[in-house]
Design a protein that fits this description.
Helix content is 42%, strand content 20%. The protein has 539 residues and is of the alpha/beta class. The protein folds into 4 domains: 10-71 and 165-180 and 187-223, P-loop containing nucleotide triphosphate hydrolases (Rossmann fold), CATH 3.40.50.300; 84-162, no CATH class; 232-319; 341-530, P-loop containing nucleotide triphosphate hydrolases (Rossmann fold), CATH 3.40.50. A 6-stranded mixed β-sheet has the order 5-6-7-3-8-9, sandwiched between helices. The longest helix has 54 residues, at 225-278. Residues 237-283 are annotated as: Disordered.
């Protein structure tokens, strides 16, 4: 009979952690997890992965404790794997499968026979099939699988082990729509506790609650991501309203103190003049002076107390507002005429040297400021097609015509020279732009003053992509066509929303490869093109 004491749970008490450079990520964190589905959100660098690693015991906290009751499975974002690892090794079941095979062959010892899980092979096969990998050979090289297949295989291994808690770090990164559906099904059907770090808003909408890590600490929000966003907007409006009120009070207090000081100076001056003209005795004049000085001291103390109270309220209000700025601007450049041909592909065939026919006999025309989503399974050639259009790969046959300036932006922001400043990058990509124009354009993307002189190598992933967008579309003559290859992978949600803001202000055409359905919807995709695997036909 189960009791409350052995119910699976994870309890964090007074937990503190720091980043490798020593700055504090969070401190005195009290939090618990049970059988609910929890989404963990926050900006890059706030400590989400660190928190998962503390829970599973891969890191030690600076202070506090982690109590664990139940088996924990952890799907890491970047697992360390030998190049010669088999699928069985990659999914963590090599030892159990080897023992099972020894038992079948009659080579197991008496002690080993007692340890064998005779259902392990059948359960592994069932888990792989559940995640779309039916028939996968456990002796197959793990590295031969695509990134998405590796993620699903590792998850299948964890499910086979029957954990009470499943922790997943960005499980849908690099997965196509079909593979994301498999992850979604697992989230819906898993009977234990779930803790997921993700910027996939569709996945987060399946959660029971959202835990947010910010510079202000950790906040638990009941409900799914949609509920969290709505409540966060209301909470932000309240705290910003309090900050505005505190600022007004501080300014009003300062004005009142100054007005009182000026009135008193006028009264004191008038009193001194009146007493002097009346020829009062010195002893009476000295007494009046002492009274005036005492009054001035009292007024000063009152003013200091009022000013201190106003400043304290302002400080509290400022501390309650996290520093978060959304992009809000109008871009330069005219919108493309609706009938202008931006891109024309005729019977295009091409690919990398080892597979020069990934794209075969493909034709496509883009006109005006079209917003196109290029879709298809992993391996269908979406990135290859963008690289052909951008000129990074040479076609084997066919024609590519692009009469407008184009910019190719991938998740690494390779358009930028990582050793040059943002200002220098802007001027290189916008010939003829002055320093003033470069600073003004970068400021619209929130790279102001000193930030405009930083190099991309010092920026986070989200900041790099924002800088690449600034250089590509922020000038007087912006690129007329953007090629976007999974631009928001690995970005936190606030950075994704900043990219969405920039693209919504953009007046040119773009072709976007992304498996994030919410992102594609938010940037106003008006045309979807399916690239079929192996045939390179467009539907």
């Amino acid at each position: 009979m189960s009791t409350r004491s052995n119910t699976p749970a994870i309890t964090l008490t007074g937990l503190s952690a720091a980043a490798p450079d020593g700055h504090t990520l969070f401190k005195n964190l009290d939090l618990s997890f049970g059988s609910e589905r929890t989404g963990l959100v926050g900006r890059n660098g706030t400590g989400k992965t660190t928190l998962l690693e503390l829970i599973v015991g891969l890191r030690e906290p600076l202070a506090g404790t982690v109590q664990r009751r139940g088996k924990i499975g952890y799907l890491r974002q970047w697992p360390d794997m030998p190049d010669d690892a088999t699928v069985a090794q990659g999914i963590g079941l090599a030892g159990k499968l080897a023992l099972f095979r020894r038992g079948l062959s009659g080579e197991a010892t008496a002690d080993e026979l007692e340890q064998i899980d005779w259902a392990i092979e059948a359960e592994m096969e069932a888990s792989l099939a559940r995640l779309g990998l039916a028939g996968l050979d456990p002796d197959h090289p793990f590295k031969a699988l695509s990134g998405g297949e590796q993620t699903r295989a590792r998850l299948a291994g964890l499910l086979t082990d029957k954990p009470d808690f499943l922790l997943m770090d960005e499980p849908t990164n690099h997965l196509d729509r079909a593979a994301r559906a498999f992850i979604g099904d697992i989230v819906e059907s898993f009977k234990g506790g779930l803790l997921i770090v993700s910027h996939d808003r569709d996945l987060l909408d399946r959660m029971d609650r959202i835990v947010e890590i910010t510079t202000l600490g950790v906040t638990v929000w009941g409900g799914n991501y949609c509920f969290y966003r709505n409540e966060k907007v209301r909470a932000t409006e309240r705290t910003e309203g309090e900050l505005s009120s505190a600022r007004q009070q501080a300014e009003r207090t300062a004005r009142d103190i100054e007005a009182a000081r000026q009135r008193k100076e006028k009264r004191d001056a008038a009193g001194r003049k009146g007493r002097a003209s009346a020829g009062q005795p010195k002893i009476l004049l000295d007494a009046a002076k002492e009274r005036a000085e005492g009054s001035a001291g009292g007024l000063g103390r009152l003013a200091l107390r009022q000013q201190s109270e106003a400043e304290e309220r302002l400080t509290v209000a400022k501390d309650a507002v996290e520093r978060a700025r959304k992009l809000d601007f109008h871009l330069s450049g005219a919108e493309l005429p609706s009938g202008k041909i931006v891109l024309s592909l005729e019977n295009l065939t091409g690919g990398p040297p080892q597979n020069p026919r990934v794209i075969a006999r493909l034709s496509l025309t883009v006109t005006g400021a079209e917003r196109i989503a290029l879709e298809g399974q992993n391996g269908a050639g979406k990135t290859t097609l963008l690289r052909l259009i951008a000129g990074e790969l040479q076609p084997a046959s066919g024609l590519i015509r692009c009469p407008v300036r184009l910019a190719y932006l991938d998740q690494s922001a390779a358009i930028l020279d990582f050793g040059a400043s943002l200002v220098d990058n802007f001027r290189r990509l916008n010939p003829g732009a002055t320093d003033n124009a470069a600073y003004a354009a970068l400021a619209r993307f929130h790279f102001r003053n000193e930030a405009a002189r930083l190099t991309p190598a010092t920026l986070s992933g989200g900041e790099r992509l924002r800088a690449a967008l600034a250089c590509a579309i922020g000038g007087e003559d912006p690129a007329g066509l953007l090629l976007l290859d999974e631009p928001v992978n690995h970005l936190d949600i606030e950075s994704v929303e900043a990219v969405e803001d920039a693209l919504n202000a953009y007046r040119g055409a773009f072709i976007a490869v992304s498996h994030d359905g919410t992102f594609l919807e938010n940037i106003g995709v008006s045309r979807r093109i399916l690239l079929e695997k192996s045939s390179s036909r467009l539907n």
